[in-house]
Amino acid sequence: PLDVPDALPAEGYALAAFGREDGTAEIVLAGVDTAGTFYAAQTLRQLVDPAAGTIAGVGVVDHPAMRHRGAIEGFYGSPWTHDERLDQLAFYGRYKLNTYIYAPKDDPYHRDRWRDPYPADLRAELGDLVDAATANHVRFTFAVSPGVSICYSDPADVDALAAKLGAVYDLGVRAFSIALDDIDYTTWNCDADGARYGEPSAAAAARAQVDLLNRLQRGFVADHDGAQPLQMVPTEYRTTDDSPYRTIVREQLDPAVEVMWTGSFVVPPEITVDQAAGAAEVFGRSTFVWDNTPVNDFDATEGRLILAPYDRRQPGLSEQATGIVLNPMNQAAASKVQLVGAADFTWNDAAYDPQRAHRAAARYLAGRMDAESDETVEALLALFDLENLAPTSALSGALSQPQAPVLAARLDEFRAAWRDGDRAGAIRGLRPYAERLAAAPEVIRADVADRGFVADAKPWLDATDLWGEALVATLDALGARVQGDTAGAERLFDRATDLADRAGRIETIPGETRPQGPVRVADGVLDEFLAEAREL
C-alpha cells in the first residue's frame, strides 16, 4: 500500500502497480486535481516497458516543488511559428511543464502596437494555442508590453490594455502578464504623467506602474471569473540591490501581483538560493524567475546554438521562488535540450542531476526513451558538447557553461600522451572520438525522431561535418608524420585547413536568428587544437 499524505499539494498524484495473490494485477492512479491525474498518466507512460507491454510493481507519490514550470517566449528575433508553438505545448504536457508565457518581442501586437486588437487570423491562432495548452494542462499566459508608449494617467490607455486582455480572456486565457522590461523610465510618454507622478525618475516610474498594475489586479482580474493573479516584469528586473523603484514596488504593489526577476544579471552565470532570497526581500514577495537561458538573441551568442545542460541553478530555489520559466532560443526544438532539464529541476530541485537530464533530452530527441543509450543518443550528446558554451550578459565576459568540455578533456589526454612520447598511442586514443564527431551529423540527420531539431541544427550539423573531417584529417597527418611521410602529412594538414576554412564560412539561417553570423562549433577548443597540431 502507498503511504499517501493527507494533503498533497496541487498537481500531486499517487500511482501504484501491484500483483495479487490470484495472479491478477492492478494499476491505480489518482491526482489531487485534473493536472495531477494527467501527470500520473505521464509517469505511467514512462514506466511501461514498450517492448514487453508490461510494468514492474511500483508505488509513486509525487508532486511538484514549484508552482510555475515552463517557458516564456520572450526573445528578440524571429518568433516561433504556430506549428512550433503547438509542438512545444504537447512537449510541455509530456514533461509536466505547466506554464507557457506568450511574449515574443517581435510580435508587433505584443509591444509596439499593443493597443491594437489582433487580426482575425492571428486571433484564431491564439485560440488554437489556448485549446492546445488546456489539453496539455499548460497555463497559457498572455503578456502585453505597453511600456514603450503607454500614458499611465490616461484612462483611455488603461481601457485599451484591459480590452486587450479581455479579448484573449474570451478565448479561454486566464493568466496575464504586464511586461515593463527594456524600456526607458527616465522620460514620460505623455505630459499628463509628469503632472500626475512628477519629474521622470525611477521612483516616479514605479508609482505609475504600480498604479496601473493595482488597477488591473483589483479591477480586470477581480472582475473576470477564474482569472489568475496578475504577473508583471519590472523595469528593474535584475540584481538584488534595493532602490527607490523597488521600494515603491515593495510597499505599494498589491500583494497578489507576482513579480518576475532574472537573477544577478539579465543573463546570469548562476542563480543561488541566497540571491533569490535577496530578490524576495527587495520586492516584498517571492519572485517568479524569468531565466534567460538558452536564449541566443544577444551579441555574445552570435552563431551559437546553446545545447549545454540546464545547470548552475541551486537546489533549494523552490523554497524562495514561486517558479522558473526559461527564455528559449529562436530555435524552438533545440530549446528542448534545456527545457527537459528545467522540467526536472522545477519538479524536484533537491534531486536534480544536470547530466542525467542532458542524457534524457538526447533520448527524447532521438526517440529512444526505452534505451539509455545508442548510436543516435551518443551522436546527439557529442553535438551538445560542441555547442556547450553559454555566455552571460556580464561585462567581464563570464560564462555560465564552458565550451566543449568533453572534447577538451579528450584533447588534453592526447596532449599528455604526446608529451610523454607515446605519439602513436595519443593518435590511437583520440581517433574513435574524432570519428564519432565526423559521423554524428549524418546519424542525427537520418535517425533523430524530432525533425524540428534536425531543421534547427542544420547549419551547425553542416559545419560539424567539416570540422569532424578536419579533426580526422589532422590525426591522419600526425600519423603520417610519425611514420616519416612528411609530404603526405603536409597534404593532409592542408586538407584539414581547407575543411576548417569552409566550416568557418557557414552562417546561421537568415531571418531565423538574431544576431546573424558564422556558426560556432567548439570554438576555442577544436580550432585551437587543429592549429596547434600542425606545429607538434
What does this structure look like?
By secondary structure, the chain is α/β, with parallel strands linked by helices. 45% of the residues lie in helices and 12% in strands. It has 17 helices and 13 strands. An eight-stranded parallel beta barrel has the order 4-5-6-7-8-9-10-11, surrounded by four helices. The protein has a three-stranded antiparallel beta sheet with strand order 2-1-3, with helices on one face. The chain is globular, with a radius of gyration of 26 Å. The N and C termini lie far apart (66 Å). 47% of the residues are buried.
- Uncertain parts: none
SS element count, helices: 17
Strand percentage: 5-15%
Helix content: 40-55%
The biggest sheet, with number of strands, parallel, antiparallel or mixed sense and barrel status, is: 8 strands, parallel, barrel
Distance linking N and C termini: 66 Å
Secondary structure layout plus pairing:
Elements: E1 13-19, E2 25-31, H1 34-47, E3 58-62, E4 68-73, H2 82-94, E5 99-102, H3 120-135, E6 139-144, H4 155-169, E7 175-179, H5 191-197, H6 202-223, E8 231-233, H7 244-252, E9 258-261, H8 273-283, E10 287-291, E11 321-326, H9 336-347, H10 354-366, H11 375-386, E12 390-391, E13 399-401, H12 405-419, H13 423-447, H14 451-456, H15 458-482, H16 486-504, H17 526-533
Parallel strand pairs: 4-5, 4-11, 5-6, 6-7, 7-8, 8-9, 9-10, 10-11
Antiparallel strand pairs: 1-2, 1-3, 12-13
Helix pairs in contact: 2-3, 6-7, 9-10, 10-11, 11-13, 12-13, 13-15, 15-16, 15-17
